What we know:
Blueprint: H1 8-20, E1 26-32, H2 42-47, E2 52-58, H3 65-77, E3 81-84, H4 95-103, H5 105-113, E4 121-127, H6 133-141, E5 159-164, E6 167-171, H7 183-192, H8 202-216, H9 218-225, H10 233-243, H11 255-268
Amino acid sequence: MNIQWYPGHMTKARRMMQEDIKLIDIVIELLDARIPYSSKNPDIDELAKNKYRLVIFNKADLADPERISLWEKYYIDKGFYVLKMDSRASKGPKSVTNAVKNICKDKIERDRRRGILNRPVRAMIVGIPNVGKSTFINSYAGKACAKVGNKPGVTKGKQWIRINKELELLDTPGILWPKFEDQQVGINLAITGSINDEILLTEELSIKLIDYLKINYCNNLVDRYKISGDMSSLDILIEIAKVRHCEKKGGEPDIEKASAILIDDLRSGRLGRISLEVPQ
């Protein structure tokens, strides 16, 4: 299963970020809390070098709390300031202002000494497609500033959003990187919805997901679908089709439909709080 997805607008978006980075004080990078390694674009570290950094584990309500704690330590040890949140919760993004002021305090103090008062800190919001940037911005700003969708590629251009007199945000389109060296990264991105579903083989993806869940979250599978975990991954998928009454004409189990149900249950949290990776 070879997953690669890098549409043309991402090349343009990356070029645009390179041009705009000189205007920025701090880069706020949203990661998917379920896949904090796979959702971290390695290009961002190069683009954002010499800038203040804040990493936000978004969708933390969907991830395994114990694994979130492991990932927090992992990124803090690497020198990042880390927050975790669910951007859909109204109080979630409000902690960002204090974090930004704390991270940028030296810069704010330098401005004050130079007599530069009331200049807002400028932050660039970056992240992979469908990580929740637009939801985060709208929740933070308290109004609909950014277009929101549950699929990748909704934000096409950049826009400045003034949060308050202390902070301005530059929203950017979600970008991936041209080649996944580790195919597990591509699989994790596909399972969580950061790659366009139209190019994916849903049945293969579901088998990979079940392989993982059987080892790490077998009870979630058993409880959700009222099935036995002591079967092959394909047999489990067939059982899900039966339990969910997914049938083709003639009564044959509709594996494709069952696969879509499984992946949607994972993405929505109906399968429980699940993380797909741990720090190595």
